[in-house]
Amino acid sequence: MKNPSLKHLSNLETRLLDQAWQKLEGEFRGAPMLAPEAGFVQRWEARRQQAQQRQQRVRNNWLVAANGFAILLFLAVVTALAWGLLVQPTLFTTIVGTIMAFAVFSLTIFQVALSVLTEVPFAIWCLTFAIGASLLSLWADLFNQVHIEKGVNQ
Amino acid sequence: MQQDERKWLDAARQGDSQAFSRLVGMYAKPVYNLCYRMLGNPQDAEDAAQETFLRAYRALDRYDPQRKFATWLLSIAANYCIDQHRRVRPQLVSLEETTQVELRQSEPGPERQTLALETHHEVQHLLSSLPARDRAAVILYYWYAYSYAEIARALSVSESALKARLHRARRSLAATWRQEQMNPLSVQRSIYEKSIS
């Protein structure tokens, strides 16, 4: 059991804190709503424009970097091919042969997939599609909810 | 007013930045007040309020129209200020800075002005003794008269957790105030130590 004097002290402290809070609560409720200095909206518009310009600059820089990389990659491939053809003239026919082999391989895969499609009954396809679509919509809904919560709490 | 807000919101969501500027004008005061009460000085409050509107502007397509726009905006402001507390060490502010803010809007007459100023400093000083999350709860409860449900949603906590937080904050404020009445210097020192730790 709790010591009676400790209990008394605890009650006393609670009462004193309650009294103090009653006094303070008035001050909190009466405290005014502070306003920013005049011209807040203009300053915000300037800030938004600056932020947009900065974002645009970053986007442009990324675009330039990505294009530069693509051009460099293209040049590297062309140089490598040209150099290979100079060193070994039969390389061209080898490359064409590889591409043709890949095309034949892709065609075989496509034919197999088509035969599987025709083998399985249409009703089974419909059922599978319905299950897949419901799972996807459920996932999209959950994702959307989490996304909205994140946006608010950022 | 409500209709104007809806109209401007719809236009802003279509990409009309002028409409959003009108919303900025409409909510500048409540957002600035929250930031000021959270951060304690006019410069940081102005910066936080501007950043809040910028974040809201960018996230406008994710705003749920079922929800009150003001609550959504204030939740962004509160969370931003809480983050600022985590990142930046609170600074001590000169009395002159806050005095300028307060004098702009205090009541007429030098005596009432002085009294209002003292109350302002006391309230702000007591608020600064609270942890950031408790402070946000107290500010939203006392300055904005929002329901528990609205505040809980804005701060992403349950209603029971919010009530517990408010109870703890009130007790802490009352205890600090009582201590200060008895020994002002020791409390100010402990608040200062808390703010720099």
List the topology elements.
The complex is a heterodimer of chains A (154) and B (197).
Chain A: H1 4-30, H2 40-87, H3 91-119, H4 122-153
Chain B: H1 2-13, H2 17-39, H3 42-58, H4 69-87, H5 95-105, H6 110-127, H7 132-144, H8 148-154, H9 159-182, H10 184-196
Helix pairs in contact in B: 1-2, 2-3, 2-4, 2-7, 3-4, 4-7, 4-8, 5-6, 7-9, 8-9, 9-10
What pattern of helices and strands is seen along the backbone of chain A? HHHH
Helix content of chain B: over 70%
How many angstroms does the end-to-end distance of chain A come to? 48 Å
- Structural category of chain B is mainly alpha
Mean pLDDT of chain A: 85
Coarse shape of chain A: elongated
The structural class of chain A is: mainly alpha
Q: Which segments of chain A are poorly predicted (pLDDT under 50) over 5 or more consecutive residues?
A: none
Count the E strands of chain A. Answer: 0
Rg for CA atoms of chain A: 36 Å
Question: How would you describe the overall organization of this protein?
Answer:
The complex is a heterodimer of chains A (154) and B (197). By secondary structure, chain A is mainly alpha-helical. Among the domains of chain A are: 37 residues; 31 residues; 34 residues. Chain A is 88% helix and 0% strand. Chain A has 4 helices and no strands. The longest helix of chain A has 48 residues. Chain A is elongated, with a radius of gyration of 36 Å. The mean pLDDT of chain A is 85. Chain B is built from 10 helices and no strands. Chain B is 80% helix and 0% strand. Chain B is mainly alpha-helical and 197 residues long. In chain B, helix 4 packs antiparallel against helix 7 and helix 7 packs across helix 9. The longest helix of chain B is centred in the C-terminal third of the chain and has 24 residues. Chain B is globular. In chain B, 32% of the residues are buried. Classes of the chains: A mainly alpha (154), B mainly alpha (197). At the A-B interface, helix 1, helix 2 and helix 4 of A face helix 2, helix 3, helix 4, helix 5 and helix 6 of B.
